[in-house]
Amino acid sequence: MRKALFLVLLFGVGAFAQLRVLVIDQSQTLAESMRLLALVRALKPHGLVFEAITHFPTTPWTGEPVLFVVYIPAQGPYIWFCPPGLEANLPQPLQEAAQKIKAALAQAFLGVREVRGPAEDLYPLLLALHFGSLGVFGRP
């Protein structure tokens, strides 16, 4: 895990400017929770603000709006990365941030789960539409 977090620490401080990320963590193993905790601690100093919940939102969002959602289901081989639309349509700084967050997730969960976003699978796009309808996403 140290090797994985080393790559995360290489991110420049200016790479993120107070980007809010919602993590929906339904993982049920201590190992996955520890990987996620290490990832969050490594990325926080770089301007990312994390909010974590353990339940899947189904009612209108009352918290602070976020720019990205990371959904870790209880079971399955994937972590779903949900931006507020197709990554190719995001402004350039958010595209770069999305790629770096996905890379960091992939490194932290290497061999355990695969990170999938809208470019790799339809499900994260459908999730993003659901989160958008609840008001989870804010404006950059």
Question: How much helical structure, as a percent, in the residues?
Answer: 25-40%
Which stretches of 5+ consecutive residues score pLDDT under 50? 1-16
Beta-strand content estimate: 15-25%
Helix-strand sequence: HEHEEEHEH
Structure description:
There is one protein chain. By secondary structure, this protein is of the alpha/beta class. It has one domain (19-65, 81-134). Helix content is 37%, strand content 19%. The chain has a 5-stranded mixed sheet, sandwiched between helices. Strand 1, helix 2 and strand 2 form a beta-alpha-beta unit. Helix 1 (2-9) runs antiparallel to helix 3. The model is unreliable at 1-16 (pLDDT under 50).
Please provide a brief summary of the model:
The chain is an alpha/beta fold. The chain has helices at 2-9, 30-43, 92-108, 122-134, and strands spanning 19-25, 48-53, 68-72, 78-82, 114-116. The relative contact order is 0.21.
SSE topology sketch:
Layout: H1 2-9, E1 19-25, H2 30-43, E2 48-53, E3 68-72, E4 78-82, H3 92-108, E5 114-116, H4 122-134
Parallel strand pairs: 1-2, 1-3, 4-5
Antiparallel strand pairs: 3-4
Helix pairs in contact: 1-3
